[in-house]
Amino acid sequence: METALHQLVVRVEKALDQQEIALGAFLDIEGAFNNTCYDTMCDALVRHGSEYTIVRRIKATLEGRVAVATLNKISLKFAISRGCPQGGVLSPLLWCLVVNDLLARLSGSGVFIQG
Fold it and tell me: Fewest CB atoms within 10 Å of the CB: 20, 22, 61, 90?
């Protein structure tokens, strides 16, 4: 089985061998887990066939998060309004579903997309 990187290299080498133009654009989305909106993640779950009960439960879990910052004897609580919880399997799954929608839209335009 070929890796994603190998598939990309093969396509670029083929284009260069045939004296075609090969253009690569690499996307690094900084702060992806921290800045993704809850509705975007839940919409992606629905589009990928998740049951309503599961989507509702995940949204309730995401919306119910609170961060506490303490310095000396002063503590502040903040309601978290976006992003994925860190350190579990849910965050990468939600992010992959969101990005998959983006990749699907781009690949429908006749451009080779590798994610």
Answer: 20
